[in-house]
């Protein structure tokens, strides 16, 4: 079994063989599970939506990642009742640096994930707000199980 890492702005998919993994801060990891067909997708989304309309879907944005994953899973509205989603991340990682807008990125990403999953009729099975923690999600493509781990963030003094 190989591990596919979803880095920022990347969507990964497995058909029951590989493990999918993302390590997150204020970004959100969105995993969609189609257990009946053993198809799993994971996106690592940086922002809720693009600031200007785009013509190509980009997994960097929650609003684009969900339709991208559904298309990659070949689920264009069929059997949506069989799909479940897990969302993790959305931490407030930058408040020590005094950027008020940056503090809203994580919570905005979580809100967007809820909104867009609902819009596409995908059941939100679990949402894990990382709050003040970095997080990791691992999806096991062979079993359909997932694991979420939270890690304490470093303080500004530890980074410098």
Structure commentary:
- The chain has a single domain (3-146), classed as 60s Ribosomal Protein L30, Chain: A.
- Helix 2 links the parallel strand 6 and strand 7 (123-129).
- The protein has helices spanning 62-72, 100-119, 156-159, and strands spanning 3-5, 11-14, 19-24, 28-34, 39-45, 84-89, 123-129, 133-140, 146-152.
- The radius of gyration is 15 Å and the shape is globular.
- By secondary structure, it is of the alpha+beta class.
Write the topology of this structure.
Elements: E1 3-5, E2 11-14, E3 19-24, E4 28-34, E5 39-45, H1 62-72, E6 84-89, H2 100-119, E7 123-129, E8 133-140, E9 146-152, H3 156-159
Parallel strand pairs: 1-3, 6-7
Antiparallel strand pairs: 2-5, 3-8, 4-5, 4-6, 8-9
What's the number of helices? 3
CATH architecture: 2-Layer Sandwich
Can you give the helix content as a percent range? 10-25%
Counting structural domains, the number is 1
How much strand content do the residues show?
25-35%
Largest sheet: 5 strands, mixed
> Count the strands?
9
Supply the helix-strand structural class: alpha+beta
Overall mean pLDDT: 89
CATH class: Alpha Beta
| Beginning-to-end CA distance, first to last residue | 38 Å
Low-confidence parts lasting 5 or more residues at pLDDT below 50? none
Name the overall outline.
globular
What's the Cα radius of gyration?
15 Å
What is the string of SSEs from the N terminus onward?
EEEEEHEHEEEH
Widest sheet, order of strands: 2-5-4-6-7
According to CATH, the fold-level topology is 60s Ribosomal Protein L30, Chain: A
